[in-house]
Amino acid sequence: MSVGDYIRGSQIWKSIFRHPAPYDRRNRVVVMLTNFFLHLHPVSVKQQGIALSYTWCMGGITFFLFLVEAITGVLLMFYYRPTLEWAYQDILALRDVTTLGIMREIHRWGAHAMVITVWLHMYRVFLTGSYKPPREFNWVVGVLLLVLTLLLSFTGYLLPWDQLAIWAITVGSNMARATPVLGHEGPGFQLLNLGGYDLITSGSDARFLLLGSRFVGEETLNRFYILHCVAIPLAAAGLIAIHFWRIRKDGGISQPL
Amino acid sequence: MNVDPFIDPHPNLTPAVLQGLGWLYLVLCAMNLWWTIRVYREDKHVMVPVLNIELPRATFWALYTSALMIVGFMHVSWTNEDYIDRFPLVLEPGGPFQTTIDFVVANPVTYFVISITGTIAVLLFRKFLVKPTVGWILLNAAVLFQALSMTDYDFRQIVGKPDNVPIVALLYLVGGFTWLYFYKAVENDRRLAEWDGEGPVPVLENDENEKVLVWPDLVYSELICMIAITTLLIVWGIVLEAPLEEPASSAKTPNPSKAPWYFLGLQEMLVYYDPWLAGVVFPTMILGGLMAIPYIDFNRIGNGYYVFRQRAFSIITFLVGFITLWVAMIILGTFLRGPNWNIFGIYEYWDVHKLEALNNVMLSELFYLDWFGQFLDMPSYGNDDPLGKQVSMILLRELPGFAVIGIYFVALPPLLAMTCLRTFYQRMGYLRFMVFTQLLLWMAALPLKMVLRWALNLKYLVNIPEYFFNI
Asked: Which of A211, B54, B76, B353 could staple A220 via S-S, CB 3.0–4.6 A?
């Protein structure tokens, strides 16, 4: 008996996998049904649904990049402190002295790549008409995921707390100042007033809500940190689950039912 | 030319650049070696006109590949600084090639005209462009153009920025995938044109479409893909260091201040629209419009295969939106917008003092002053005037603008329903059609405002600075 057979015959192995290795047809079916991670997939799919020149693999790569970002992100969180005193110093140390400081590079390039793969995934879904019935709503979920991806990237952009970071966020969030009615430089903000006093000022408008302050400062850093590390990833994880579940329920990635 | 930083702080060629380019040429050479073998296996011949002999097509590719190899090795080995002056493959800065390119791209009008005619040309000449040889030549041309441009210092400053590398990748990916789409769509169009309507749709995607087991067919490709992506990210992380500039300072504003690259299309819109439109309303309309796509596209055919003719309208709209109005705008914002948000050529030095005269006017000024010669004896209003008087004065002043916008958003949809989009209206019904035309008009609003700006120097159609309401 080989070592491999001995391991696969042991009680420990069987308690985890509960069936023989997927060498024959029966066990290749069983493995898909019994494995928690694999049950995301059906047992069998149409060949086109997995042909690389058809799918471009962009949705799958996006999900994998999301996992990479989660793992490298958690590792970075062990090191990084989101305060004015330490944020920049910690990134500097990640670059210069920290073992595995390359996690920051992987995290940043992975984030850029994820924005691109989301776009290309949408491009493919559109060009193959995969948003057509019965998958209309999954396209909507996908657009929401696009928004979350961009927001994740945008909130993460601030965290290094260098010139590139605060000015990109300043330029980006200045738009909120001009929100109609709700921004203090937006059209119609005068509509919200109480006895002649404006309710919408630079200390109470949409931009203030986003930044937690009148300008990009410590409150913003904290706010974006929580959004980046907790709130948006949780929302994205929930929507990803719905997105995948609906692919199964709608009968695969494309073609009419 | 000298590489001594004290003599020339902006050297076009350095040993490191030559070294890097050498490797790029060698990679291109390896790619073309594969291509040559592929062409050789096809065993096709061409007549050479003057010499009157027949040669295998692979001969020309072999010559080109050899040339690339020589060029590549020359770059890799000729890195001694003394040789740089005599380097035979230098694209001189300020040469006619660079001047022409800069002249064309460093102008929003020509840039936009090129990007829109480019999109139209791709649609019109798709059958020619999807020939594998044509596609391969285009790829080679793009890589060679980039390689030659990398010898320019100013080009390297902007394209070589670590954060801009993904945008270069995006260009190649969007180009490559668009080519792949048309390659399949043209073939499917041809097949569908010959189809008699019997049996399953005869598209490429249905040729081999049996059910296969997910284990092993899918899980193994997923594993390989995950390993490939992980490798790519690690190599990318080793080669390029993530950018880290000086510590944040709210006192020192960089010039230009740019949003993250994926928002630069929106930032570019700020040139033509005020922040409340470019930064709030337009993004909302873009996202709402994207979500609305499945509900306004009444065409049920073309699900599950690449096709052009069956879905021509929706494909053209999406290509114009994604490539011309989104990706091209990001390229413009990233690579061409410099200090003071002036536009610069790709080989041009980012001079902070570059001046561009701007004499933008409002529609109300154009209307009353230029076309009627006077402000029509309009009484002015002061701060003490009652609100009602101020508002009615403003409304009178901005009447032309409101009229234009009213016609555009209110009168155009029914007109379209009665004329060129008649079948759309009949098949979509009232509500769907109205949502659809509003979205389409919003999408067209950006290029239209651009044209108005370039043709009439028009800044705002409606200009009510008193209430931050400018359109």
From this structure: A211
